Amino acid sequence: MSCTVSAAAMPLLAASGNAEESASRSSGPDEPVNISLTINGQPHNLALDSRTSLLDALRDHVGLTGTKKGCDHGQCGACTVLVDNRRILSCMSFAVMNDGREVTTIEGLALPDGTLHPMQQAFIDHDAFQCGYCTPGQILSAIGCVNEHHAGSQDEIREFMSGNICRCAAYPNIVDAIVQARDELRGA
Ligand code: FES
Ligand code: FES
C-alpha cells in the first residue's frame, strides 16, 4: 500500500473518538444518529444510519454528487474530500465519525462568482482529465497534497498522489497541473 493511502487513512483513525460519542447518542443499532456537518460552509443536520459512509451521506442524503464512488473500498481515491482541510477517503469513513467537522467537496471550491479554484483552473489549463470520473477526487487530493507540503517536486507529487487512480492515465498532465497550482497557491 502506498504512502498516500496511509496518509489519507490516518485522519479516519483520528476521528474515531467522534464515532463513539455519536454512537452513544443512538438508542439502538437501527436507530438513526443525529449529526451536524458543515459542508462547503453550509450547516447540515442529518439523521443517518450509523453505518452510512460519509460518501453516501454526501451523495444520497445531501445531494452533492460531485464526489464520486469508484471502488467503495478505499482503493481508487475517487471519493476524496477534505475534512478539516485534510484529505480523506469518504467511502472509508462513517459519516458519524465526522460529526461537527468541516467537509469540503468539489462543489465548494469555486468562488460564488464562479471563479474556479486555482487547482480546478490548472486541471483545465493542462487538459488533466479525459472522462473526468476521477477528477473531483484528484483535485481535492491535489489540494491536500499541496497543503501538506508534499508537492515539492514532480516525483514527490507522483508519490503523494499515488492513491488516486486514473483509468484514462492522465497522470503526466495531472502532475503538470499540480505544479502550476502549487506555484500559484504559494505565490511563486
Ligand atoms: S470510492 Fe473511495 S477509494 Fe474508491
Ligand atoms: S480522467 Fe478518466 S479516470 Fe481519470
What topology does this entry show?
Elements: H1 3-14, H2 16-24, E1 33-39, E2 42-48, H3 54-62, E3 80-83, E4 86-89, E5 102-104, H4 118-125, H5 135-147, H6 154-160, H7 171-185
Parallel strand pairs: 1-5
Antiparallel strand pairs: 1-2, 3-4, 3-5
Helix pairs in contact: 4-7, 5-7
The chain binds FE2/S2 (inorganic) cluster (2 copies).
One FE2/S2 (inorganic) cluster (FES) is lined by residues 129-135, 166-168, 170.
Describe it for me?
This protein starts with a helix and ends with a helix. The chain is built from 7 helices and 5 strands, in the order ααββαβββαααα. The chain is α+β, with helices and mostly antiparallel strands. Mean pLDDT is 89; it is low at 1-17. Helix 4 crosses helix 7 (171-185). Bound molecules: FE2/S2 (inorganic) cluster (FES) (2 copies). Residues 69-72, 74-79, 89, 91 line the site of one FE2/S2 (inorganic) cluster. The site of one FE2/S2 (inorganic) cluster has 11 residues, from loops.
